[in-house]
């Protein structure tokens, strides 16, 4: 079987986006004998090529071609961590462990929704307790 050293990474449609402070490109990964290449490994190789830290490289949207051996995806390389946190969607930051997304339990969300149904107007925003009528 092939190992990670046989992986070739080629970039195309390279663009420097000054407005969003990043470099963006389509990446073709040739990996004969491997099912696919991990994003962590890809981040490290691309960071070395673009003289950046691996935390600033965001690969996503990779699809393996039919028959295997080749994948294509998109990569964003940010100039700084501040610009990455400013422009990158929260879910992609969470994937790399840069941001922690707090999740409220599904049951609690549903209970809150149903409690809010009983409130009117600005009470919903305040989260006041619904009054029980004794009629």
What does the model show?
With 135 residues, this protein is an alpha+beta fold. Helix content is 30%, strand content 27%. It is built from five helices and four strands; from the N terminus they run E-E-H-E-E-H-H-H-H. It has a four-stranded antiparallel sheet. A hairpin with a 4-residue loop joins strand 1 and strand 2. The longest helix has 12 residues. It is elongated. The model has no long low-confidence stretch (mean pLDDT 89).
- The average pLDDT score comes to 89
The rounded Rg comes to 23 Å
Structural class by SSE content: alpha+beta
Number of helices: 5
Shape label: elongated
**Oligomer kind:** single chain
User: Helicity range of the residues?
Assistant: 25-40%
In terms of per-residue confidence, which ranges show pLDDT below 50 for 5 or more consecutive residues? Answer: none
Strand order of the largest sheet: 1-2-4-3
Span between termini? 77 Å
SSE order in H/E notation?
A: EEHEEHHHH
Compute the number of strand runs: 4
Q: What percent of residues are in strands? A: 25-35%
Major beta sheet summary: 4 strands, antiparallel
Brief write-up:
The chain has 135 residues and is an alpha+beta fold. It has helices spanning 39-49, 81-87, 90-95, 106-117, 123-126, and strands at residues 8-17, 22-30, 57-64, 70-78. It has 5 helices and 4 strands, in the order ββαββαααα.
Labels describing this entry:
single chain; 135 residues; alpha+beta; four-stranded antiparallel sheet; 5 helices; elongated
Write the layout of secondary structure elements.
Blueprint: E1 8-17, E2 22-30, H1 39-49, E3 57-64, E4 70-78, H2 81-87, H3 90-95, H4 106-117, H5 123-126
Antiparallel strand pairs: 1-2, 2-4, 3-4
């Amino acid at each position: 079987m092939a190992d990670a050293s046989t992986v070739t990474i080629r970039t195309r449609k390279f663009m420097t986006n000054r407005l969003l402070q990043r470099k963006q490109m389509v990446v073709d990964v040739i990996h004969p004998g491997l099912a696919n290449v991990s994003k962590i490994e890809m981040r490290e190789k691309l960071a070395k090529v673009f003289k950046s830290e691996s935390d600033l490289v965001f690969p996503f949207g990779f699809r393996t071609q039919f028959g295997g051996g080749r994948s294509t995806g998109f990569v964003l390389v940010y100039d700084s961590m501040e610009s990455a946190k400013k422009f990158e969607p929260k879910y992609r930051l969470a994937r790399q462990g840069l941001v922690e997304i707090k999740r409220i339990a599904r049951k609690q969300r549903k209970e809150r929704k149903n409690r809010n149904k009983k409130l009117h107007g600005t009470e919903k925003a305040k989260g006041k307790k619904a009054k029980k009528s004794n009629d």
